[in-house]
């Protein structure tokens, strides 16, 4: 599937305080299981991809935010390995729905994450955008998780098959398209 041209659907986040467009094939995970109040999660089980939008407060300088947030995600996910491949600071036009002065960066990396009984030979590409909103002392993380390989012992293997996957190759361009649609509509979201 060419993810760079697939249709997107606009969804409301956090009760309408923000919005974003996600691939129309993605489902709202909160319709399936509980999701923390500071997160919105959308996924496509047919390719084991997910998009997470999370509001956090990170007390580190901008220059340390990539390493901090990526390591924190790896820790929470129980990753046995994590590696940042690239960091790209974004321009205001890349995410026009947030203040131009906000620090915006995209991290591309890999994490070896075991889901349930998934073997350690499964790798995920993690593309994380960090939007630092200093005026409200909060950060918004927009994370696209997509498998590079799926272990035969993974629960996902029964749905998408084990082995190497190709969706991760287009994931960075997919996230760029999604980021361009992100908009904060009500700053009371940040308390």
UniProtKB/TrEMBL annotation:
Sorted alphabetically, the keyword list is:
Protein transport, Transport
- Please give the start and end residues of each transmembrane region: none
* GO cellular component terms given for this protein: nucleus
GO molecular-function annotation terms?
Answer: guanyl-nucleotide exchange factor activity; small GTPase binding
Question: Organism's domain of life?
Answer: Eukaryota
Kindly indicate whether the keyword Protein transport belongs to this entry: yes
Alphabetical GO biological process terms? protein import into nucleus
Similarity remark: Belongs to the MOG1 family.
| Record-given protein name | Mog1p/PsbP-like protein
């Amino acid at each position: 599937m060419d993810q760079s041209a697939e249709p997107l659907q606009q969804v409301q986040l956090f009760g309408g305080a923000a919005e974003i467009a996600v691939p129309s094939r993605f489902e709202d995970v909160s319709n399936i299981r509980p999701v923390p109040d500071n997160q919105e999660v959308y996924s496509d089980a047919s390719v084991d991809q997910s998009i997470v939008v999370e509001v956090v407060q990170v007390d580190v300088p901008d220059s340390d935010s990539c390493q901090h947030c990526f390591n924190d995600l790896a820790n929470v996910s129980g990753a046995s390995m994590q590696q940042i491949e690239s960091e790209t600071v974004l321009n205001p036009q890349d995410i026009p729905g947030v203040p131009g002065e906000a620090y915006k960066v995209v991290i591309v990396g890999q994490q070896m994450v075991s889901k349930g009984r998934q073997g350690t030979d499964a790798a995920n590409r993690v593309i994380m955008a960090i939007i630092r909103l200093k005026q409200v002392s909060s950060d918004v993380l927009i994370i696209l998780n997509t498998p590079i390989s799926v272990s035969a012992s993974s629960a996902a293997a029964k749905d998408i098959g084990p082995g190497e996957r190709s969706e991760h190759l287009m994931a960075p361009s997919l996230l760029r398209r999604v980021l361009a649609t992100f908009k904060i509509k009500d700053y009371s979201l940040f308390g």
